[in-house]
Amino acid sequence: MDFPAVSELIPHEPPMLALDRLTAWRKGHAEGELTIRPENPLARDGTVFTVMALEYMAQAVAACLGMESYLAGGNVRVGMVIACRRMTIHRQSMAVGETFRVRADEVRASDAISHYDGELRSAGGELVATCTMTLVHGEKPPQ
User: Is residue 143 part of a domain?
Assistant: First the structure.
């Protein structure tokens, strides 16, 4: 399956749009890749603290839900993380220029709120961070 540009799936614009591409999708599951860019507003002295991986995992959720809307012919919904449980960080920082694989898996969901497990790994497969997120979703936009 060919996927649309992530800019069509996620309601962010550069430089906050971190996900470079969607690599796998099925309802309730998304995988993607991202590279930490020098213009990343979260970068300081060539690194991003790994706690910021929460944003990258949330963007995988946005891509997951955005792809669902895209296939249904609808518009992307705005959402936000309202809680994060069990975030585990396996290293302190991520370097500018490094590439990562990110994954999001739905745990349970309703039209207004959802819970997702997220995972971030280095391109080489090293586990960098995991978490369980609770997200609230805005109203569905008009078609």
Answer: no
